[in-house]
Amino acid sequence: MQRDRRAIEGWLVSHLASLLRIRPEDIDVHTPLTQYGLDSLTAVYLVGHLEEWLDRDLPATLAWDFPNIEALSKYLAESDATVHSSPRSRDY
Q: Does any domain span residue 77?
């Protein structure tokens, strides 16, 4: 299922807040994820759940590849159409 940027952004805010045990309204989508104390274990966990929600393969480094929720959700929404128009990762 294709998701728009706002839906992805909302999901990320909600799940990040839950993981870090802070209120969603305390998360600014423009603030770098590292400023929230996101560590590598939490980042991999978040990406794993995001992968399930989006039903697509994502690199474990995704949270480090984009500086904040806004950039990450924009990338995911824009690349979503491309991913869904081609087969999921293949075994060669």
A: yes
pTM flag (> 0.90): no
Q: Who's near 32: CB < 8 A, 6+ residues apart? A: 67, 68
Domain region containing 69? 5-82
Residue of 31, 76, 82 lying closest to 58 (CA atoms): 76
CA distance 32 to 84: 28
CATH value at residue 14: 1.10.1200.10
Domains contained in the chain, number? 1
pLDDT per 10-residue tile (average), the chain, 92 residues: 90 94 96 91 92 94 93 91 44 38
Q: Establish how many alpha carbons lie within 13 A of residue 40's alpha carbon, considering only the half-sphere containing its beta carbon.
A: 2
